[in-house]
Design a protein that fits this description.
Elements (H helix, E strand, L loop, with lengths): L2 H24 L8 H20 L3 H33 L1
């Protein structure tokens, strides 16, 4: 598989990941603050960001980096809250 085919495959996997998260959230299967939703969004955005880099689409790369970063920050905040809750419960 050449680089164009590989980057196109990345874009489809990323797109499906983001759309799956969105559809599940709009159907009340996932909540936008759940780990699974945030990981689907971060994973999909990261893949689309890689694709944007490979095809020199800089505006799209910045957009996907922002989406990925926002999802990862929200995920880190969730983990902080979870660990502080676990520490409080064990005290």
């Amino acid at each position: 598989m050449n680089i164009d085919g590989f980057s196109e495959l990345l874009s489809y996997i990323g797109m499906i990941s983001i759309l799956l998260a969105f559809v599940l959230e709009t159907r009340n299967v996932l909540h936008s603050k759940q780990t699974s939703y945030l990981m689907l969004m971060a994973f999909g955005s990261a893949l689309l960001g890689i694709r944007a880099f490979l095809i020199d689409e800089w505006a799209f790369l910045i957009l996907e980096a922002a989406w990925c970063g926002a999802a990862l920050v929200a995920f880190a905040q969730l983990k902080q809250v979870d660990s502080s809750t676990d520490n409080d419960a064990s005290s």
